Amino acid sequence: MRLIVRKSALTGRAAMPPSKSHTIRAVAIASLAGGRSIIRRPLVSADTLSAVGCYHSLGAAIETADPNLWLIQGTAGRINHPERAIDVGNSGTTLRIAMGSAALSTGGQVTLTGDDQVRSRPIEPLMKSLENLGAKCRCPAENDRAPVTIRGPLTGGSTSIAAFTSQYLSSLLLCTPLAAGDSEIDVSKLNEPGYVRMTLDWLDKQGIRYRNQGMREFTISGGQRYRPFDETITADFSSATFFICAAALFGGQVTLTGLDFADSQPDKHVLDHLKAMGADIAVRGGRLVVRASKLHGARIDMNDTPDALPALAVAAAFAEGETRLVNVAQARTKETDRIRSMAEELQKLKVAVEELPDGLIIRGGRPAAAAVNARGDHRIVMALAMAGLGIDGGITVEGAEAMNVTFPDYVPLMRKLGADMEVQQ
Questions:
Q1: Domain region containing 412
Q2: Which CATH number fits the domain that encloses residue 164?
């Protein structure tokens, strides 16, 4: 699938889609709980449906016929061990969180796999921590990548982990309350701490007992249980990032609704990043109002917002002066190496870009029309499509089907605001 984008300006109002990160955490906790949980307004996308399929295979009964109301009858922590490997598709979040859940199984083993991208993503630190806490983990290919076979039970104990991705720590925090004994986790490195904060917020809602010492040491009491719940998923700041950036560059006035500014989602800090570049952004009555303005370069620490790298790289390409997006080395191990991929694709648009080990230096100017490739990465699709809104002659984005992983309604919502976008199969 290709996406043709022509120069156009945005104006109007749009409701942002539900959060992927919250939806997957909700599916995992509801599946581990006893009783029936209700998830209202979940995100329906390839990634979240991968989580649904995974936890169904692990024993949860999940009803998704109504896209606005998912019903989950949980396992009470009694995990199935299906004979066939569970395929999580493109969802790295599901893979890593489900690894912890699979470690709760008794009497059998669980094998988790995914698509080519997921099978390229590192999991060794998480495997070692799960083994420290009583589980057995093995990669048949002996490459510390999925497919991975996990055998429980999780007994508790002590472990240390370098959380190059926050998903490692979130996985441990979600499974250890159901271990037989207490667990101690020493965190020697933590990227993306905001996503761990999201996980802790879910534990707090559940009344889970744990001690957190500065995000560096955790003690989690074992023998606990998750309770069924009824929760509405808030809107996704990660998806809103593309609309905020596009409106700041190419808008008249755009109003985005549904975002909860008290929520712990780390990508809400994109507002601060863009304000540092001169963006005209205001919150009025719970709505986000963005007006186009002349952006300038800035130095931005993106450690807590790695998913925003593609969109901010495009914003920097149109800004005046030099922008440095730094401290985000983990972006190299997402769906693709986003640092290298964005550098190479922006260079096709005649943008001056320099790779750093942990980020990008971008010198803004006048990007030129070109054909670009999303490299199978949903966030790169949406970021490059956004660039086309400001380019004479527009751009063509190959591999646009990847956006369905998290945001299948991206094009209709952009069109609603005036974007000239055309999907070609």
A1: 2-16+235-424
A2: 3.65.10.10
Model confidence pLDDT, tens digit, residues 312-359:
999 999 999 999 999 999 999 999 999 999 999 999 999 999 999 999
As a dihedral over the C-alpha atoms of residue 234, residue 197, residue 361, residue 399, rounded to 10 degrees, the angle is -50
Distance, CA of 134 to CA of 100 (rounded, Å): 11
- Residue 11, classed as helix, strand or coil, is strand
Residue 160 lies in a domain: yes
Q: What is the dihedral of CA 324, 325, 328, 334, to 10 degrees?
A: -130
Check whether residue 285 and residue 192 sit in a common domain: no
CA dihedral sign of residues 261, 267, 272, 277: negative
Question: Do 255 and 320 share a domain, yes or no?
Answer: yes
- Strand extents, DSSP E, 118-241: 136-138, 148-151, 157-163, 183-190, 210-213, 217-220, 230-232
Q: Is residue 228 part of a domain?
A: no
Pick the last residue of a domain from 176, 197, 221. Answer: 221
Residues marked active site are found at 307
DSSP secondary structure code for residue 320 in this structure: B
Q: Where are the alpha helices (DSSP H) in 8-159?
A: 20-32, 46-57, 92-102, 124-132
Task: For helices 338-348 and 309-318, give the axis angle rounded to 10 degrees.
Answer: 30
pLDDT tens digit string along 113-126? 999 999 999 999 99
Q: Which of 49, 110, 48 is nearest to 79 (CA)?
A: 110
Domain boundary among 157, 192, 221: 221
Residue type, 319: A
Looking at residue 425, what is its pLDDT? 84
Dihedral sign for Cα atoms in the order 35, 38, 43, 44: positive
pLDDT digits (tens, 9 = 90+) for 357-388: 999 999 999 999 999 999 999 999 999 999 99
The reply to whether 130 and 162 lie within a common domain is yes
Token duo for residue 219: 């003690």
Q: Which residues contact 210 (CB under 8 A, 6 or more apart)?
A: 173, 177, 200, 203, 218, 219, 220, 221
* Whether residues 265 and 335 fall in one domain: yes
Question: What are the C-alpha distances in Å from 281 to residues 121, 252, 259, 260, 291?
Answer: 36, 12, 14, 15, 7
Q: Is residue 418 part of a domain?
A: yes
